[in-house]
Amino acid sequence: MGNPVYLALDVPQLDAAVALCRKVKGHVGGVKLGLEFFCAHGHHGVHEIAHVGLPIFLDLKLHDIPNTVAGAMQAIHVLEPAIVTVHAGGGRAMMEDAKAAAGENCKVVAVTVLTSLDDTALNRTGVPGSAHDQVLRLAELAEASGLDGIVCSGHEVKAVHDQWKKGFFVVPGLRPGGKAAGDQKRVVTPREARDHGASVLVIGRPISRAEDPLAAAREIEGTL
Ligand SMILES: O=C(O)c1cc(=O)[nH]c(=O)n1[C@@H]1O[C@H](COP(=O)(O)O)[C@@H](O)[C@H]1O
């Protein structure tokens, strides 16, 4: 298996994002372009990053009525992303239509409970119980909707993997030992996530904000 680390390019400047990608190429398996990047640089920015030659994970967290989400999926076909995210909270019909509209080579994965939420913050959104149970419920719905997998934290990935053997599991909220969690609440190390069944490890600031991003990427690679 190749390097499972996808670098989250949550960097405002396009030239800085391209330079960072070039620097760590060979020590990450792909790059994740999220809302900050896409809102600032759109299709043009994705094309610029694609020239670096790493697989692209387009993390747009689509969440709308089925027709609108399917239209958005069709509009990003040309960018040939390897992975795209939608929110599981959009429901079964939305996920089914998103998958049907995605290209053949594009994995569609559902965001379950954001890694920035703990149980208390989740309960305040009106969802009772634990983040763990909600992730398992939404994973079941994503599988029934024909998606490839889900996004969850390293706290849940083992249980989800036990329930959905062939699922594709994206795990963010990763911090190599001792690194500041920041806004993340449900955090594990990259190695723990991998050992518990993660398919993709999403890592942003521990690499992008490191004094030496290449050294940070290499160090993480060495722990896997
Ligand atoms: O869908 C995601 O990638 C995602 C889901 C989630 O629950 N939590 C989460 O942090 N992410 C993304 O993963 C990345 C984590 O970045 P760092 O906290 O800097 O490593 C960010 O780009 C987030 O948008």
What does this structure look like?
This protein has 224 residues and is an alpha/beta fold. It has one domain (5-223): Alpha-Beta Barrel (TIM Barrel). 42% of the residues lie in helices and 16% in strands. It is built from ten helices and eight strands. It has helices spanning 14-24, 35-50, 66-76, 92-101, 119-123, 131-144, 157-163, 190-195, 205-208, 213-223, and strands spanning 5-8, 30-33, 56-62, 83-87, 107-111, 149-151, 168-171, 200-203. It has an eight-stranded parallel barrel. Helix 1 (14-24) packs across helix 2 (35-50). The protein is globular. The termini are close together. 43% of the residues are buried. The mean pLDDT is 96. The structure holds orotidine-5'-monophosphate (OMP). Residues 8, 10, 34, 59, 85, 111, 114-115, 151, 172-173, 184, 202-206 line the site of orotidine-5'-monophosphate (OMP). Orotidine-5'-monophosphate binds at residues 8, 10, 34, 59, 85, 111, 114-115, 151, 172-173, 184, 202-206. The active site is at 59 (for ompdecase activity), 61 (for ompdecase activity), 64 (for ompdecase activity). It holds the Pfam family OMPdecase. One of its GO terms (biological process) is 'de novo' UMP biosynthetic process. Substrate binds at residues 10, 32, 115, 175, 184, 204-205. Catalyzes the decarboxylation of orotidine 5'-monophosphate (OMP) to uridine 5'-monophosphate (UMP).
